[in-house]
Amino acid sequence: MMDALTFVVAGAFAMATPLMLAALGELVTERSGVLNLSVEGMMAIAAAIAFMTTHDTGSFLLGFAAGGVSGLLLSVVFALLVLVFLANQVVAGLAVGILGLGLSALLARSYEGMTILPMGKITIPILSDLPLVGPILFRQDVMVYLAIGSAITLAWFLFKTKRGLVLRVVGENPQAAHSIGLRPIRVRFIAVLFGGLMAGLGGAYVSIVLTPLWSQGMIAGRGWIAVALVVFACWRPIRLTVGAYLFGVVLLLDLAIQALGLSIPSVILTCMPYALTIVVLTIVSSDASRIRLNAPVSLGENFRPAN
Amino acid sequence: MTSNPAVQVGEAPRNGAPLLSLSGITKRYPAVVANENIDLDVSAGEIHAVLGENGAGKSTLMKIIFGVAQPDAGTIYWQGHPVRIDSPAHARELGISMVFQHFSLFEAITVAENISLTVPGTLKELSRRIRETGQEFGLKVEPAALVCNLSVGQRQRVEIIRCLLQEPKLLILDEPTSVLPPPNVEQLFETLRRLVAKGMSILYISHKLEEIRSLCHSATILRQGRVSGHVIPAETSSHALASLMIGRDLPKTAHPPARQDGAVRLRVANLSSHDPDPHIVNIDDLSLEVRSGEILGIAGVSGNGQHMLSKMLSGEEVLAPSEKHRIELMGTAVAHENAGRRRNLGLSFVPEERLGRGAVPPFSLADNSLLTGHRMGMTGRGMVRNQPRDAFTDQCIADMNVVCAGSKSNAASLSGGNLQKFIVGREIMMAPKVLVIAQPTWGIDVGAAAMVRQKLVDLRDTGTAILLISEELEELFEISDRIVVMFKGRASPALDARATDAETIGRMMIGDIAAPLFSEAAQ
Amino acid sequence: MNIRQPFVLVPRQRQSRIALIAVPLVTISLTVIAAFFLFAGLGADPGIVLYTFFIEPLSSAYNLGEVLIKASPLILIAQGLAISFRAKVWNIGAEGQLIIGAICASLIPIYWSHSDSMLMLPGMILIGAAAGMVWAGIAALLRTRFNASEVIVTLMLTEIARQLLYFLVTGPLRDPMGYNFPQSVLFPSAALYPTFGGVGVRANLSIFITLAVTIICWVFVSKSFASFKLLVGGTTPAAARYAGFLPKQAVWISLLIGGAVAGLAGVGEIAGPIGKLQRIISPGYGFAAIIVAFLGGLNPIGIVFAGMLMAVVYVGGDNSLVTANIPASASVVFQGLLLVFYLATAVFARYEIRRAPPPLIPA
After folding, report:
1. Which residue of C2, C242, C356 is in closest CB contact with B316?
2. Among A171, B72, B353, C53, which lies 20 to 30 A Cα-Cα from A290?
3. Is A179–B88 a contact, with Cβ atoms under 8 angstroms apart?
């Protein structure tokens, strides 16, 4: 049973990784004042393209590259709608999300149900032989470590660098940022693109590492959970990492429960991540003042330079 | 063109041209011509005033100089060369800096971080330079302080230091004294004089005649988007300046003493607010009474809790039912009731933000009547009745001389002054028992301001209890009967407006009068 | 060094009539052009694809009937969502409300599967609408009491509704004589909307519910004070607070209306073309209706046209695998393209595009 639990906890890291990647991207996007609700769609198109690439070339590197780029390309469409055509951010996010979901199903239609060999794990010598923590912390694939690394890097970037400061002030008050000579549109464009890239990497991870197979609709709400995670984390990268691992555990709950030999109706288990998202979101949001103090002030509002 | 030979000119451009010269600048907006054929010269080392009342086109002109807006016609010469100033960044490269009327500081970060956004250098280096510059020019600020904790005067100092660290040749100040309590104004002037003594030029925008006469070397006066004169203010009388600015003498409001025996209609008892947001100044144990037939003025420097007070009185912020007696309207406890319920009891309210709070920008005036005037028979069986709505709107437009294209025109298409007249008219037409009105003449022209003030006095004489929140001392003395000063969320006892003077009130506004006075109000 | 914007956007003072007509036309044209290149790139004959998606659905009585069957729920839901979106309350979980409405309404005919009571269909309609309202009401409660984003809550509730439906049709509500197929018993005819339009055409009288809701929505939107309050809350929240219009009320009204129409649409499916409860009862009508609401300019009349257009695309999707070897997911791509291009072109209805004057001296 210990082995089974170790397996589940180690697996939770892998489950959390795509959530983390996508949510970190969304965090940066939202910090600039843009709410991008197309994460699900960006992850879907990236999952499809990445799977096709890795399936055809056998290269995981190319798969991730293709996934990242396709998420990024879709986010360009979103950025144009919101930043140039001043479309409502919620609606534009839905539009691009639907487009991404549709394209993923259409483009990868002939790959439905196919599988690829799983990506190898990095085994850190000595440390990985430690009991319990060894397999959990030191025998993971490269993206797990990369995701943790990017969370730390982002925390440093946001709070310790000049560019991070610029990103935050654009999210607080783009009009004032413009008036002191910053370029809010450009900052937001870059932030949205970064969000697309990260969602793309997250989507690619789902289809070429986590499952690894292609099936239409396989993102299964992960993009939306990522959006909720950003709220849960109060727009802070390190808190986000913790939140993502909590969700990783929940997503693996049916395995864990089997491991513990409990019997719980499957419908409850399949609903669990969604219900938990609602519960967590509700608890975090109920402290309205904390949300107001942490949320980027201009989140969801478009900026148009006065003329 | 005016240049002042009396002023010591700093480093003059080689070709002898003025530092900045505007020629034939014109800017049209869909509804109005904001600037028409404006000529203006600023020499090196002078303080040049741009004088004009609200809506005369001063702000548009400054936006053009600072690259925020582009002129439709005309040329800007910088040190004798024609330039097109594309953006604030470009203006800054040329050596133009601007202190805005509404500051462009970010609340959630420190002074030094704010400044680091526009001035290169590490935070440590900048902190040192901020202190040095502050010392040199009498602008004391703490680099590590969060902006949200600073007073308005301190924020202005941060803005000025930020500009100075970029070593500009020209500093633009947009109505810098409008946010300052009187004692801080002289301090600011001292700083500005030190700056020009170092060879910098200052473009000083204002509508206040006296300060321009005491500070500026030369002035360009704007009226309705055109230049109405170039003068040397020290050699021109206030009377002459006023007639160049508005085309006639400043209007005066008739203000007979109020009756003393009116019943208390609005009572506030030990009111406190508890917003955890550090950017918001909370109300602290505030009490006051407004009687039928009087105007109670609330004086105070911006950001001392007036905003929260107006929201708590209007019902945009509500308290728990257990605290309902903190606010009473005509003897009814209402502190827990929403704005609609309070209005049903006879409260009217004019907020300081006209567009987006007092009126819905993309809606017609008729629909904006409906916003609060629906109580006046504009609805029936849940449906909107167009006829009474339009009749109400037409009457409001006629009564208040609102200049617009009729009841179908959008609120956003009206000038600030006309929209304010419309909103005040709408609230007055509901024959309120209590009227709360905040900053009634902010940013509107002299004529509209005078009309609004007269309407308030007339309404008072019909028995309405009026609470007037204003940052303009002149306005408070012009029409209020008693004055309360707010400082850090607390309120002083009410003073008889006719028995006190601006200096006393001014000192109370910066907390210069002992604190017990403020807590006494609560008892 | 200095990126100059060659064009500037200036808000329009009054609505442009030309833009009102041009925006939908340009949107459709751009979608067709984009689809042409997309499908050409995928190796399909774009001519055949476009014919399949835009012409064929209008070419026979059967197909027209199919268009009506699909337009009806789309328009019905979109009318309710439009009210919600005007108030900027983002109910994007109409799909889940539809499913829950269908599940609850189906309990009557599953329980009384041999009844021919005249009350059966009206009962299903009431229960379906009420169930949709309850499901949307959860989001309203969490939003008004706990400030939880209705976007995420309605969406997560949709996933839960899907899982619940799957669980029910594979378990408690499965037809015991149905060879383990994941579906319920067939409903008795008293539980079905009567069809019209001839033999084999499946169009049914649920269309009249859509029609009635459209008229009610039109009156509500154009005349009622409640709709005015919702619109103020959506356009300018500070003005709504100032006037004392209660934001919580707006959230409740918006979500409950959306939930009710989605529930009705769910009944329309199970008591219409499907005639039983099964794993999939809606091809994403709840999501497509969001697009319909926006394409229709959030206007009750516009929504009717947009709903018809979307239904044509849906029917095209049903036929496309056979005629053009393109999977039905292509219709989702069309939906996405339509909304993307609509949002891009709608800017011209709201803003005038002006050329910025050229620089005298390069910066």
Report:
1. C242
2. B353
3. yes
